[in-house]
Amino acid sequence: MIYLVFVEDVIRRKLLIDGDGTGDDRRLTLLLKAFTRWSNTFGEPLSEIKSAEDQLLDQLSQCEYIYEKTRIASKMNEQELENYGKLATNIKNEIEQTKDEIQSAKEKLQEAKIFRKNRMEYEVIANVIDQHPERKDTHQKLTAIKKELGNLEEVKQMLDSKIEMRRKHFHVLVASLYQLQAILDNEELNEENSHVNISDDEMDTFE
Length: 207
Known about the structure:
Blueprint (H helix, E strand, L loop, with lengths): L1 H17 L3 H18 L6 H85 L5 H68 L4
Helix pairs in contact: 1-2, 2-3, 2-4, 3-4
């Protein structure tokens, strides 16, 4: 009698835990059939009772095994999804940071282009000064202008290089984000297919 109550309690737990999928329903059906067969063997020969009991215990063990296997797989998938979520967040943050850096570099490059445009005016002024008797302060201004032009050219080259590097980095980050999304979609599809395949393949032996 105590054993019968124990079996009924196990069945109720299985209904609460595993009764939400087609494979789980099938396992429960087989378990209930085994339980019904076992409960109907009271008064039968000992060999019949033993056979029905063994089949019932096999069904219970199978349900416990499938449940534990599914629980572990689900926990691993949740951990992977969490890791992918963190990675996706980091990539998005890097993309935003890269966008800001590119925008800042574009603004600086625009300033450098303006300075470069004015260089022609500086050269015209320098030519006019060269054609007239030099004064000390005029010579110093000319020297300063030439130095500034050299500095502006260096700044422009540096900004061109930096923008090109940031642009490549941005493309890499965007590609990584698309690849991550594809991995997440594939993981979700594989989890669904794996759950259905495990349920069908492992329970066929008990039909």
